[in-house]
Amino acid sequence: MTPRALPSQRMVIGLISDTHGLVRADVYRALAGVEMILHAGDVGGSEILDELALIAPVHAVLGNTDSPFELALPLALDLTLAGLRVHVSHGHELGRPKPAVLAQAYDADVIVYGHTHVQIIEQVGRTIVVNPGAAGPQRFKLAPSVARLTIEHGVATAALLPLRV
User: Fold this and answer.
1) Nearest CA to 86 among 136, 43, 50, 36?
2) CB burial class (10 A; 0-12, 13-18, 19+) of residue 47?
3) Residue 150: φ, ψ to 5°
4) Percent of the chain clearing pLDDT 70 (strictly above)
């Protein structure tokens, strides 16, 4: 008897952070075809989440500049996506976090954060840590960006996507 192969668990997720009230037109191209969007905070208003929901369902967390009175968002999300544990938070709860600090603080296969506006994808032990950069108004001379997270057969990979200014 031949063993049956398990069905492929593949999921593509859009990662965005620090929109600060702006959804650039290029976000629609960069996140086209994703199954869901994870927003790592500093949203800037509920209308931003409504705009992103035109692309895919959105799960978001509260950032340090977001009003908890305007946005009823959690401080963190812990999700299981395609078999992997994914933690999303803004990152400000740890100061100005680095990937190693995040990996030590949160027990997850993938950690998504924002706050620093610095784009990064880093493997820390078994954890992939992703900051998609800031998608909103350009600050700190950093180019705006988002990321795509692909989970396939229990393995997560991420890619940064620059946005047109």
Assistant:
1) 36
2) exposed
3) -115, 130
4) 95
Distance CA 135, CA 104 (A): 26
Please state the pTM of the whole predicted model: 0.94
pLDDT digits (tens, 9 = 90+) for 29-57: 999 999 999 999 999 999 999 999 999 99
Pick the CATH number of 11-162 from 3.90.550.10, 2.60.120.510, 3.60.21.10, 3.40.50.300: 3.60.21.10
What token pair was written down for 105? 């603080």
Q: Where are the domains of the chain?
A: 11-162
The rounded distance, in Å, linking the Cα atoms of 48 and 114 is 16
Residues 6+ apart with CB under 8 A from 63: 17, 18, 40, 41, 42, 43, 90, 92, 114, 115
